[in-house]
Amino acid sequence: QVQLVESGGGSVQPGGSLRLSCVASENIASAASMAWFRQAPGKEREGVALIANDGISTYATFVKGRFTISRDNAKNTLFLQMNSLKPEDTAMYYCARMRNRQLTSRSVNSWGQGTQVTVSS
Predict the structure, then answer these.
(1) Which of 15, 38, 86, 107 is 20 to 30 A from residue 117's alpha carbon, by CA?
(2) What's the CA gap between 103 and 121, in Å, rounded?
(3) How many CA atoms lie within 13 A of 102 on its CB side?
(4) Which of 107, 106, 94, 105 is nearest to 31 (CA)?
(5) Backbone angles phi and psi of 88, in degrees to 5
(6) Whole-number pLDDT of residue 68
(7) Could you give the count of Cα atoms lying within 13 Å of 57 in the half-sphere of its Cβ?
(8) In this structure, what are the phi and psi dihedrals at residue 72, rounded to the nearest 5 degrees?
(9) Would you call 92 helix, strand, or coil by DSSP?
(10) 78 within 8 A of 22, measured Cβ to Cβ
């Protein structure tokens, strides 16, 4: 099973930015898509953004215009650029290899271990 290792999380003030990275042990270009999910304490895990193998991306409504998902197939790396961060973005962020283009947990083949993002003044 593919291994996914996230990094780039941390603490930031509201309005700040972070860039998350996810390095895969296998070729991400062969996946139907790659995605980011997040889970806040006491809440269900939710999809944040997805990028298909043709480069088309999908975003959750609550991050549109603020977050950008991208990929570097040559480096087997997935990115999530997060701008204009809000306290409600505080969560554990997970990288996922997907079996299709649907941004749901049911479509996940492999999960990373997560990286914590905390937005607080």
Answers:
(1) 107
(2) 31
(3) 7
(4) 107
(5) -75, -5
(6) 98
(7) 18
(8) -120, 95
(9) strand
(10) yes
pLDDT at 91: 98
Count of residues making up the chain? 121
The whole-number mean pLDDT for each consecutive block of 10 residues of the chain, a chain of 121 residues, reads: 95 98 93 96 97 95 95 96 98 97 96 98 95
Burial (0-12, 13-18, 19+ Cβ within 10 Å), 1: exposed
Could you give the CA distance from residue 5 to residue 27 in angstroms, rounded to a whole number? Answer: 14
- How far is residue 49 CA from its own chain's centroid? 6
Q: What is the pLDDT of residue 30?
A: 87
